[in-house]
Amino acid sequence: MIGQILGGQYKIIQKLGYGAFSQTYIAEDTIQFNAKCIVKQLKPLALTPDTLEVAKHLFEKEAQLLYHLGSHHNQIPQLLAYFQENQEFYLVEEFIDGHDLSEELTPGKQLSESYVIALLQSILEPLAFVHQQKVIHQDIKPHNLIRRKRDDKIVLVDFGTVKELAVTQIVNSQGETRVVTIIGTPGYMPSEQGRGKPRFSSDVYAVGIIGIQALTGLTLGQLQEDTETWEIIWRDQVEVSPQLAEVLDKMVRYDFRHRYQSAGEALQAVQQLAHLCDMPTSQATEILTTSLMHELTLEWFEGEQRRVQAILERQPSKNPGTFRIGREPAACDLVLSEPTVSRLHVEIFFNPQQQGFYLRSLRESNPPMVNGQSLPTGEVLLNQGSSLQLGQMELKVTAIALKQYFVEAAPSQPAVHPTPAPQQPVALTQAPPQPSTLQESQHSPPPVSPQYRQELIEHPSIPPSAPQRSRLHLAFLIICRVFAASLIVYGAKGLYDYIACLIALGSCDISEPGAFWKFLLCFIVGAFVWLSTN
Interior CA angle at 194 toward 191 and 195, to 5°? Predict the structure, then answer.
């Protein structure tokens, strides 16, 4: 192949690598000033007319995907061209001047935590974009990660193995479905990918393995597994901060359900670690600490889709100290689409004295149902297994547990000023008390902020708190009431007089919003009626 010109313009100058289904070359573009490029030759396993046609279709689909990825992220090579020649397929990609990551991961050499965090971040940034496009790389490994010379960024290469998240079956003339070939590299490929069922978290696993290699200096063959849990054993090989160790452990969990579910989730955790590395040690330790927090899990169905919502005892929300549920996006933290749910229906809060989650009704005219009992006002303790009904929407408390989180330092009053949301739980310890019967709480609810009080006043079905009034207003109202009473005793001479005075006397309560103006209006009407009859 050396010296051969492909596609009428790409001259092969060097063999770069090969695999079971492809070979890769460095070439010169004889039309574009002999600029270097990468030519990847794909070889179909079979050359029958049917399989060749299917391969051509998949090749064009992959080429379109590669073009989209490279055009929208600078850490992914751009696709320059693709063509078919002599029943073989070729991709022409941008040449990346740099070295692959295997040159940096020297066996026996332990790299620093700051290096590992920066490396993870540089890999996860483009990979997060790839996952956003519903694509799994499936072959993350040091040889497919190029450190670009001009900016030291990591570039993801060898996207010849990427697959869109769609089930593609090849059926022959007898109706038999062909088995899809497993793609990946042993050691960087988790168990589910080895069974031909890769997920986004499969790529996260591979990145985590690379991070462990960089930190410990171990090769793939030196990494040990627990014989019972199949988890990677590596912490005893190096001194590492618990924060970084927890992130790496979660990236390489044996069970994919316990990993970060995408590169985007893993990137958020790593970025938090990167932020701490820029701080003095004492400040970083103060900000990132472990904390035990209660967590309530709600589950419900919208249509045929199952939904899950976790609520923490110090849950960040639009209304500090409470978690509101309803149909109004501006006021609610959990917005439900069911039309029978009120705009502002209920709120859930954690009471630290009682160590439990409580539900408070915010809608008397459309009260929630808790375990089949109506709750027009007040609060009620929620237990694991409690059922909630908001309009026609049914929700269930599936779990209440005490979990350990890495969180920022907790403030003195968490119910009023909650801490930012922690990323992931790391251990389960104990559950809060679980009373067996439905009962209203006898405790004082958490402090109500001025914003919360104002929102309650705007909803007439919610009992408002007493407004603050000036002493002058209260004095005038009392004078009006005394004067109205004196009219009844000394000035009333007929039925109409009595009616007018009673209206002025009992039309509203002093503490009611707008009482001042209502008293004044009733007094004027009463006085007018009295004068007209005397």
Answer: 95
- What's the one-letter identity of residue 228? E
> CA 452 from chain center: how many Å?
26
Question: What is the residue type of 439?
Answer: Q
At position 198, the amino acid (one-letter code) is P
CB-based contacts of 521, cutoff 8 Å, min separation 6:
none
If one compares 408 and 241, the residue with the highest pLDDT of the two is: 241
Q: Is the pLDDT score of 171 beyond 80?
A: no
By C-alpha distance, which of 196, 94, 200, 195 is closest to 140? 200
Is 400 in contact with 385 (CB distance < 8 Å)? no
- Residue bearing tokens 């109004």: 328
Q: At what angle do helices 113-132 and 263-277 cross, to 10 degrees?
A: 150
Nearest to 322 by CA among 371, 360, 363, 352: 360
Residue 309 near residue 335, CB atoms below 8 Å: no
State the alpha helices, DSSP H only, in 221-296: 242-251, 263-277, 281-287
pLDDT category at 387 given cuts 50, 70, 90 is very high
DSSP 289: E
Q: Is the pLDDT score of 291 beyond 70?
A: no
What distance, in Å, lies between the first and last C-alpha atoms of the chain?
119
- Catalytic entry in 50, 97, 100, 139: 139
pLDDT of residue 354: 81
Let me know if 139 is a catalytic residue: yes
pLDDT (tens digit per residue) in 212-230: 999 999 999 999 989 888 9
Identify the bridge partners of residue 298 per DSSP, sorted by sequence position.
309, 397
pTM of the model: 0.53
Between 128 and 183, the higher pLDDT residue = 128
Tell me which DSSP letter residue 178 carries: P
- β-pair partners for 295: 312, 401
pLDDT of residue 30: 93
Give CA separation, 138 vs 164, 194, 485, 533, in Å: 11, 10, 86, 94
Percentages helix, strand, coil for the chain, rounded to the nearest 5? Answer: 35, 25, 40
DSSP 171: B
Could you tell me where the beta strands, DSSP code E, fall in 49-141?
79-85, 88-94, 98-100, 135-136
11 pLDDT above the threshold of 90:
yes
Q: Which of the four pLDDT bands, split at 50, 70 and 90, describes residue 378?
A: confident
Angle at the Cα of 70 from the Cα atoms of 64 and 72, rounded to 5 degrees = 105
| DSSP 8-state code for residue 345 | -
Distances (CA, A) of 101 to 120, 122, 214: 12, 12, 10
In the predicted model, what is the mean pLDDT of the chain?
A: 76
**Among candidate residues 256, 218, 260, 251, the one with its CA nearest the CA of residue 237:** 218
177-196 burial code (b ≥16 CB/10 A, e <16): eeeeeebbbeebbbebbeee
Residue 13 has pLDDT above 90, yes or no: yes
